[in-house]
Amino acid sequence: MKKIMLIIIMLMLASMVTAEKQKLFQNYPLTDELIIQALEEGAKEKGKFTGLKIKAEKGLWGTINFNVWSELNRFKSGIEIFTPYTWITWQASQNAEKYLTMEKSQITKEMSASVLRIFSPQVNHIVIRTTNKEEFSVIQPIEMKLDSDAMESHFSIKEVGELSELDEKGEFFIVLIKDDEEKKYKVKTKHFKKLP
Predict the structure, then answer these.
(1) Residues near 36 by Cβ (< 8 Å), separated by ≥ 6?
(2) How far apart are CA 140 and CA 128, in angstroms?
(3) CA-based Rg of the chain, rounded to a whole angstrom?
Protein backbone atom coordinates (compact mmCIF):
# COMPACT_ATOMS: atom_id res chain seq x y z
CA MET A 1 0.00 0.00 0.00
CA LYS A 2 2.82 2.40 0.87
CA LYS A 3 4.49 1.73 -2.49
CA ILE A 4 1.27 2.51 -4.37
CA MET A 5 0.82 5.77 -2.45
CA LEU A 6 4.45 6.71 -3.14
CA ILE A 7 3.99 6.04 -6.86
CA ILE A 8 0.81 8.16 -6.94
CA ILE A 9 2.56 11.02 -5.16
CA MET A 10 5.54 10.83 -7.53
CA LEU A 11 3.22 10.91 -10.56
CA MET A 12 1.38 13.92 -9.14
CA LEU A 13 4.66 15.75 -8.53
CA ALA A 14 5.89 14.93 -12.04
CA SER A 15 2.69 16.33 -13.57
CA MET A 16 3.04 19.51 -11.48
CA VAL A 17 6.63 19.98 -12.71
CA THR A 18 5.53 19.55 -16.33
CA ALA A 19 2.72 22.07 -15.89
CA GLU A 20 5.10 24.61 -14.34
CA LYS A 21 7.65 24.10 -17.11
CA GLN A 22 5.04 24.68 -19.80
CA LYS A 23 3.72 27.76 -18.02
CA LEU A 24 7.20 29.27 -17.93
CA PHE A 25 7.50 29.38 -21.71
CA GLN A 26 3.95 29.50 -23.12
CA ASN A 27 3.03 33.15 -22.65
CA TYR A 28 5.29 34.65 -25.31
CA PRO A 29 5.02 36.85 -27.22
CA LEU A 30 2.97 38.74 -24.65
CA THR A 31 -0.63 39.50 -25.53
CA ASP A 32 -2.24 42.88 -24.76
CA GLU A 33 -4.21 41.19 -21.97
CA LEU A 34 -1.02 39.87 -20.31
CA ILE A 35 0.65 43.28 -20.59
CA ILE A 36 -2.32 44.91 -18.85
CA GLN A 37 -2.29 42.18 -16.21
CA ALA A 38 1.45 42.72 -15.62
CA LEU A 39 0.91 46.48 -15.25
CA GLU A 40 -1.91 45.97 -12.75
CA GLU A 41 0.13 43.44 -10.77
CA GLY A 42 3.13 45.77 -10.68
CA ALA A 43 1.03 48.72 -9.53
CA LYS A 44 -0.04 46.69 -6.49
CA GLU A 45 3.59 45.87 -5.58
CA LYS A 46 4.66 49.54 -5.12
CA GLY A 47 8.43 49.16 -5.31
CA LYS A 48 8.71 45.49 -4.37
CA PHE A 49 11.01 43.33 -6.49
CA THR A 50 8.97 41.24 -8.94
CA GLY A 51 11.64 39.17 -10.72
CA LEU A 52 13.68 36.22 -9.50
CA LYS A 53 16.89 36.45 -7.46
CA ILE A 54 18.98 33.32 -7.14
CA LYS A 55 22.25 32.60 -5.39
CA ALA A 56 25.21 30.75 -6.87
CA GLU A 57 25.48 27.00 -6.41
CA LYS A 58 27.65 26.17 -3.40
CA GLY A 59 30.92 24.39 -4.04
CA LEU A 60 31.12 25.47 -7.69
CA TRP A 61 33.35 28.45 -7.09
CA GLY A 62 37.12 28.34 -7.40
CA THR A 63 39.60 30.73 -5.83
CA ILE A 64 38.17 33.62 -7.81
CA ASN A 65 38.28 36.97 -6.08
CA PHE A 66 35.57 39.20 -7.53
CA ASN A 67 35.75 42.42 -5.57
CA VAL A 68 32.68 43.57 -7.48
CA TRP A 69 30.61 40.69 -6.06
CA SER A 70 30.98 41.94 -2.52
CA GLU A 71 31.01 45.67 -3.34
CA LEU A 72 27.64 45.79 -5.04
CA ASN A 73 24.86 45.35 -2.51
CA ARG A 74 22.47 44.74 -5.40
CA PHE A 75 24.04 41.34 -6.09
CA LYS A 76 24.79 40.13 -2.57
CA SER A 77 21.61 38.07 -2.68
CA GLY A 78 22.23 36.76 -6.20
CA ILE A 79 21.62 37.60 -9.84
CA GLU A 80 18.32 39.04 -11.06
CA ILE A 81 16.23 37.33 -13.74
CA PHE A 82 13.16 38.67 -15.55
CA THR A 83 10.77 37.28 -18.14
CA PRO A 84 9.00 39.92 -20.29
CA TYR A 85 6.00 39.65 -17.93
CA THR A 86 8.01 40.19 -14.74
CA TRP A 87 10.07 42.93 -16.42
CA ILE A 88 6.91 44.93 -17.15
CA THR A 89 5.64 44.18 -13.65
CA TRP A 90 8.93 45.48 -12.21
CA GLN A 91 8.73 48.69 -14.26
CA ALA A 92 5.15 49.26 -13.07
CA SER A 93 6.15 48.49 -9.47
CA GLN A 94 8.99 51.04 -9.58
CA ASN A 95 6.60 53.66 -11.01
CA ALA A 96 3.92 52.88 -8.40
CA GLU A 97 6.49 53.49 -5.66
CA LYS A 98 6.71 57.07 -6.98
CA TYR A 99 2.90 57.31 -7.20
CA LEU A 100 3.07 57.15 -10.99
CA THR A 101 0.75 55.01 -13.09
CA MET A 102 2.17 53.14 -16.04
CA GLU A 103 -0.11 52.73 -19.07
CA LYS A 104 -0.02 50.10 -21.80
CA SER A 105 0.90 52.83 -24.32
CA GLN A 106 4.21 53.27 -22.44
CA ILE A 107 5.27 49.66 -23.04
CA THR A 108 7.84 49.59 -25.83
CA LYS A 109 8.64 46.65 -28.11
CA GLU A 110 11.96 46.31 -26.29
CA MET A 111 10.22 46.04 -22.90
CA SER A 112 7.88 43.28 -24.10
CA ALA A 113 10.44 41.47 -26.29
CA SER A 114 10.52 37.68 -25.84
CA VAL A 115 13.83 37.62 -23.96
CA LEU A 116 14.99 36.42 -20.60
CA ARG A 117 16.81 39.36 -18.97
CA ILE A 118 19.61 38.57 -16.56
CA PHE A 119 21.29 41.26 -14.46
CA SER A 120 24.63 40.44 -12.88
CA PRO A 121 27.86 42.11 -11.80
CA GLN A 122 30.18 42.98 -14.67
CA VAL A 123 31.61 39.79 -16.20
CA ASN A 124 33.46 38.78 -19.36
CA HIS A 125 30.64 36.56 -20.60
CA ILE A 126 27.44 34.79 -19.57
CA VAL A 127 25.76 31.68 -20.98
CA ILE A 128 22.81 29.43 -20.19
CA ARG A 129 23.52 25.71 -20.28
CA THR A 130 21.94 22.37 -19.56
CA THR A 131 22.24 20.54 -16.27
CA ASN A 132 22.45 17.25 -18.17
CA LYS A 133 26.07 16.41 -19.03
CA GLU A 134 25.02 13.69 -21.51
CA GLU A 135 22.89 16.12 -23.54
CA PHE A 136 25.11 19.16 -23.08
CA SER A 137 23.89 22.32 -24.79
CA VAL A 138 24.71 26.02 -24.40
CA ILE A 139 22.85 29.21 -25.35
CA GLN A 140 24.77 32.40 -26.08
CA PRO A 141 23.27 35.81 -25.27
CA ILE A 142 21.67 37.74 -28.11
CA GLU A 143 22.72 40.97 -26.40
CA MET A 144 24.96 42.04 -23.52
CA LYS A 145 25.25 45.61 -22.29
CA LEU A 146 26.91 47.26 -19.33
CA ASP A 147 24.70 49.52 -17.24
CA SER A 148 26.00 51.84 -14.52
CA ASP A 149 26.05 49.08 -11.90
CA ALA A 150 25.26 45.86 -13.75
CA MET A 151 25.70 43.68 -16.80
CA GLU A 152 22.40 43.13 -18.60
CA SER A 153 22.22 40.02 -20.79
CA HIS A 154 19.33 38.97 -23.04
CA PHE A 155 18.55 35.40 -24.08
CA SER A 156 15.82 34.17 -26.43
CA ILE A 157 12.88 32.79 -24.38
CA LYS A 158 12.28 30.24 -27.16
CA GLU A 159 15.86 28.96 -27.00
CA VAL A 160 15.80 28.78 -23.19
CA GLY A 161 12.55 26.79 -23.40
CA GLU A 162 14.08 24.35 -25.88
CA LEU A 163 17.18 23.95 -23.71
CA SER A 164 15.10 23.37 -20.57
CA GLU A 165 13.35 20.48 -22.35
CA LEU A 166 16.64 18.56 -22.16
CA ASP A 167 16.25 18.33 -18.38
CA GLU A 168 13.47 16.12 -16.98
CA LYS A 169 12.50 18.88 -14.54
CA GLY A 170 13.12 21.76 -16.95
CA GLU A 171 16.03 23.09 -14.88
CA PHE A 172 19.12 24.82 -16.29
CA PHE A 173 22.29 26.69 -15.28
CA ILE A 174 23.13 30.35 -15.80
CA VAL A 175 26.92 30.61 -15.91
CA LEU A 176 28.86 33.83 -15.34
CA ILE A 177 32.45 33.84 -16.63
CA LYS A 178 35.16 36.22 -15.49
CA ASP A 179 38.94 35.81 -15.77
CA ASP A 180 38.68 32.12 -16.79
CA GLU A 181 36.56 31.20 -13.76
CA GLU A 182 32.86 30.45 -13.56
CA LYS A 183 30.02 31.08 -11.16
CA LYS A 184 26.94 28.88 -11.69
CA TYR A 185 23.35 29.66 -10.80
CA LYS A 186 20.79 26.88 -11.12
CA VAL A 187 17.24 27.79 -12.12
CA LYS A 188 15.17 25.10 -10.37
CA THR A 189 11.53 24.12 -10.64
CA LYS A 190 10.82 25.96 -7.39
CA HIS A 191 11.84 29.19 -9.20
CA PHE A 192 9.39 28.77 -12.10
CA LYS A 193 6.50 30.52 -10.33
CA LYS A 194 8.67 33.68 -10.22
CA LEU A 195 9.21 33.46 -14.01
CA PRO A 196 5.69 33.53 -15.54
Answers:
(1) 104
(2) 7
(3) 18
